[in-house]
UniProtKB/TrEMBL annotation:
A molecular-function term among this protein's GO annotations: kinase activity
Stated name of the protein: histidine kinase
Reaction(s) the record says it catalyses: ATP + protein L-histidine = ADP + protein N-phospho-L-histidine
PANTHER family: SENSOR HISTIDINE KINASE YXDK, TWO-COMPONENT HISTIDINE KINASE
Species in which this protein is naturally found: Sedimentimonas flavescens
Residues covered by the Histidine kinase domain: 250-460
InterPro entries: HATPase_C_sf, HATPase_dom, His_kinase_dom, HisK_dim/P_dom, HisK_dim/P_sf, Sensor_HK_Regulatory, Sig_transdc_His_kin-like_C
Length: 467
């Protein structure tokens, strides 16, 4: 069992807590044992003193020595009626090293004194003071050795340690087994389901069936099952869309060939002397041209994978000038004025070709929107610098975007801004701007016109592409 597993770490924590519990149990136990040991010696000494008190202070030396030996003390001092009296006595082998009063000793001092006795292997003589039992006097004092008491404390500590360790180990084993049953095994089950699902996410049979009895784990299983169902559905839909895309690409390819042939014949119709044919030919040519353009655009979008931008520094005003020159309307079209508000020395860092395509798409959409009204209009292109990077604004005085175009503005084949459009221009433009780490947004659109604004960061990380 590895340490970095949940079971391994739980076992280590359980062991640490068991050891801590042993310490918390052992220290108070030994301190209580020492206090009881001393109280027992005081009680035995008091009983021994009663033999002397009942004999008018006369007792044989051998009997006195036997009474002191049974009590485990060297002498007994009893204070009765404010008189301190040495009741029993025998020679003390050494000087008294310390005195302990058991009448008003804080518990922490009892623990400290017990640890001091265990830490010192030397045999000392100590004085112990306490209250006599059954009100047999005011105070009783005895002198005794610490050696026997230390041995008794060690023996008691070992017995207590063995018993508490056995109980703690049994408790830890039961707790460990219970946690494995209630937590580790259900988690392993969830992980196993996740691994099995990852092998074939399209297989709905591999979606986990929640069955945990613990509320938290059941919530996790429910969330996992919901996510797996959504992902399986999305993958199936993606697969169907991919198949549909392949079918559309094939149809567009064949349809483009057919329309190209029709376009050749329509070109010849322009040379006809029939007035009706001459009037219909331009309209037919325009319709076929739009159909061919739609097919080519669809094919290009289906196989396009935009390369990462090749960054370079250049004057933005020169690029915008090229866009404006290329988007000038024909002489017979509505009058459109181009206004540029760009500093001549504004230098930006971007991919020249990709940025040209973005601005060209925006300007072309604006021009076509104005031409559709048949009225004069204005297209304004502005740019500026900000701490984070650069911004470029394209706005027009056209009629604004239709409601449907606003709802699916940057979605291919859904966000067309004009009748007959595919909506690919804005979708591709947004993708190119995202490739620069920036964003393209619609600022406003109403009866007074439309305004788009794109932001290019000064410092950015290019998005990674799948191999």
């Amino acid at each position: 069992m590895a340490i970095n597993t949940l079971s391994g770490r739980f076992l280590i924590l359980t062991t640490m807590f068991v050891l801590l519990a042993e310490v918390l149990i052992l220290l108070p136990g030994i301190a209580n044992f020492r206090e009881d040991y001393l109280q027992t010696r005081l009680e035995r000494a008091q009983i021994a003193s009663l033999a002397l008190l009942t004999t008018d202070q006369m007792i044989e030396p051998d009997l006195e020595e036997e009474l002191l030996a049974n009590a485990g003390v060297f002498n007994v001092v009893l204070r009765r009626d404010a008189i301190r009296q040495l009741v029993l006595s025998s020679p003390i082998p050494q000087q008294v090293a310390a005195s302990y009063d058991l009448r008003e000793t804080p518990y922490w001092k009892l623990v400290r004194d017990a640890l001091a006795v265990l830490a010192d292997p030397s045999n000392h003589v100590i004085r112990v003071i306490g209250d006599p039992v059954q009100k047999g006097g005011l105070v009783i004092e005895v002198t005794m050795e610490t050696g026997p008491m230390r041995i008794a404390m060690i023996e008691y500590g070992l017995r207590l340690l063995t018993l508490s360790a056995a109980l703690s180990v049994v408790t830890a084993i039961l707790l460990f087994a219970l946690v494995r049953q209630l937590m580790v095994e259900p988690i392993k089950r969830v992980v196993a389901h996740m691994a099995a699902y990852a092998e074939a996410p399209e297989d709905a049979r591999r979606i986990i069936a929640p069955e945990a009895r613990i509320v938290e784990l059941r919530v996790a299983e429910d969330a996992l099952a919901s996510m797996q169902r959504q992902l399986t559905s999305a993958l199936k839909q993606k697969e169907r869309l991919a198949q549909l895309g392949q079918a559309v690409a094939k149809i567009s390819h064949d349809l483009r060939n057919i329309l190209t042939t029709a376009q050749l014949f329509a070109d010849r119709m322009e040379d006809s002397d029939d007035p009706g044919v001459q009037r219909a030919a331009p309209k037919l040519m325009n319709s076929i041209g739009r159909a061919v353009n739609l097919c080519e655009t669809t094919l290009a979008f289906g196989r396009a994978e935009e390369p990462p931008p090749t960054l370079s520094r250049f004057m933005l005003s020169g690029l915008v000038g090229e866009v404006v020159e290329g988007e000038q309307p024909p002489a017979d079209a509505a009058q459109i004025d181009f206004v540029t508000d760009i500093a001549p020395n504004l230098v930006i860092r971007a991919d020249h070709e990709q940025l040209y395509r973005v601005i060209s798409n925006l300007v072309r959409n604006a021009r076509q929107a104005i031409e559709a009204t048949g009225k004069p209009g204005t297209i304004e292109i502005g740019a500026g610098e900000e701490p984070e990077g650069w911004w470029i604004r394209v706005q027009d005085t056209g009629p604004g975007l239709p409601v449907r175009a606003r709802e699916h503005l940057f979605q291919p084949f859904s966000g067309g801004t004009r009748k007959g459009g595919t909506g690919l221009g804005l979708a591709i433009s947004a993708e190119l701007v995202r490739g620069h780490g920036g964003r393209l947004e619609l600022v406003r659109t109403d009866a007074d016109g439309t305004e788009f604004k794109l932001h290019l960061p000064r410092e950015f990380d290019l998005p990674e592409r799948a191999a």
